Amino acid sequence: MKRPKSRVYLDHASRTPIDRDVLKILNQAYVDFPGNPGALYKEALESAEQIGKARAKISKVIESRSDEIVFTSGGTESDNLAILGVVEKIKDSGLDYRPHILISSIEHSAVFNFENKKIDVDIEVIPVTSDGILDLEIFSKLLRKETVLVSVMYANNEIGTIQPIKEIAKIIRKFKKDLSRDSESSYPLLHTDAVQALNYCDLNVQKMGVDIMSISGGKIYGPYGIGALYIKSGTPIKNIFEGGSQEFGLRPGTPNTPNIVAFAYAVEKAHIVREKELQRLSVLQKYLIQSINNIWPEVVINGSLEKRLVNNIHFSVSDFSSELLVIELDREGIAVSSKSACKTDEEEVSHVMKALGNRKNKTGDIRVTLGRSTTKRELQKLIKALRKIRIKYKLDKK
Questions:
Q1: Catalytic residue among 142, 289, 342, 349
Q2: What is this structure's pTM?
């Protein structure tokens, strides 16, 4: 079903519409590559060849080796494989201490929810500043000899803040050196969820200094239900699923050749258009923030204005329901979010907003995320709708 042209879609952090060229490649791949890549006949070998080419395309973008790319079903599975895979591997090593993991206080729920799970490890949360940036000084003090993994997302899915991954990697290297550990391969390992970052940040894993990195097709105008996990060669990690030996023994199940082929193309295209989109969206982001502040002075923009994704505007409105604002905007033909689509309905205030502090007053939180098709005219429609809602509920008289 086609989305009505009058609708304005501003929830690209939740899911991006599939790129038309990507869709063509996906559909054609379903026709051209029907074979199971694990078999030995012609169609199977063709599928296996295409998967190999897709791996090479992605590895070229992130500056890795092809055999360091493991295909998954998306960001959530990649995050789970990263954390559980590292934990299970180190448990197999017969260690004489309880593993310790550090995660940021604003991680995606796929990582953050491990804090409440019984996986027989100590999980500690690294605080962020009121701007949503990891506190590096506190982080360096939380590292200890039992720390086996640090997981910090590159760019936050709610407030769009970009974390200092290179600096985090540098602190970890120094920590390992001080412990007289091998700085190239020993614990603690560094994992980053880069699902939101791929469109707008340089994901050169050599420069970043990460050991493991999650990416997904559903956030880069690619096919849904496909992602990948970069795992640096030599990184100790174990398969967490039962099944076959596909994906270097780390992800059993018949590979989805069409999705993989289209995903690789989407990664390539995201890399190609990145600089152009950064410039274009930066202008739109500044325009929208200024316009919101002009018509709704009480609004608070959440997260750092400098260290954030150019497509993200997250703001809070005092004494007004998030859900009501989303519904009112939907009636005006505009799609935005009140929180991450991965949050539970029971979670009144997201853990991300709690981590920022200053939540004394009841506020409505709204996330607006721009995309490749977003225009200034669409943002003007949003501003007009916000002004209309403000008048309707007599908020200018409070």
A1: 342
A2: 0.94
